């Protein structure tokens, strides 16, 4: 039994909480109070001349004011029951029995009790859980791995609960999929919401064309892009026509470099760099690839009049291609030949013996097999120099060359 006493004027006021919870309808009845509000039970003694005063005496949440009023702060379900007020002085006593009913509403989560949510791997996820009740319910989540978290949880930077009960997953992965349970609880009861989270992984995808032909000029620098998307983030590497593998931030042969974004940089390209370059993007969810066929057009080949000049034309394919050269005058060399001014070698190289200004022009190399044909044009410039005499000095003691004449 709770017993509070307060002496006001010449009247002793006594409040007592009865142990029984049965309602007695004598006196005044207070009912319908919501839990965690502040209830005020009034017991004004007839012999009291005082008024409501802010000061009072009590125990914990209970306080009796000078006018006999009993105040209960943050009323809960445990406070419901009957309260007896007794006022006494030398002339007699008077009693008032008050029955206090505390009303609480169990939590109710909006939107039903089951949800299916699909999220993309690598993206943040927000799962709402809004509940109503009296008193306001607390929200906690049970994650797919059976971990319990709430807005007061600490130490987990990847998952948190907002004050309104929303569950935030910073960056979802395929390992986060499963069942998540939201629990709303107050003294009147609990309510739950089960959310099945599906995390969809995005396979690698290359944004550029899957097959592309790129023509370059000998001596220039080229960049071959390979932009990829996907989650988890795909790894990118390039495979050259000779089987060489180029990984990110790696130099190869002093002229190739692969940037972190997948772009392959080629420095000072030459006809020998012509071929297929394959970009491959891979992750745990799959792979994608693109092939770039690079054709390097040679710049003008300079030859010196009177000297031999070699024009190279290397080809590959299956079946092995055959090589032919078309000369500036229209003549075609289709098979290896020796003993002539123009010699076609077994490896496809064209040799021009004793070159002259009459050999200048465009030479076309064609490689063909049953699958198709490829060609490259090689401009040739022959440089002729006028004769000149170079004598540094004559040291026989009698003459020197000065200004192109002889003198003493």
Automatic annotation (TrEMBL):
Signal peptide: 1-16
The UniProt record lists the keyword Repeat: yes
Main location: membrane
Membrane topology designation: Single-pass membrane protein
PROSITE patterns per UniProt: IG_LIKE (PS50835)
Cellular-component GO terms for this entry: extracellular region; membrane
Location(s), subcellular: Membrane
Domain Ig-like: 107-198, 204-293, 306-377
Assigned keywords, A-Z: Disulfide bond, Immunoglobulin domain, Leucine-rich repeat, Membrane, Repeat, Signal, Transmembrane, Transmembrane helix
Database matches in InterPro entries: Ig-like_dom, Ig-like_dom_sf, Ig-like_fold, Ig_I-set, Ig_sub, Ig_sub2, LRFN
Superkingdom: Eukaryota
PANTHER family noted in UniProt: IMMUNOGLOBULIN SUPERFAMILY MEMBER 10, SYNAPTIC ADHESION-LIKE MOLECULE SALM
Protein name: Immunoglobulin superfamily member 10
Lineage: Eukaryota, Metazoa, Chordata, Craniata, Vertebrata
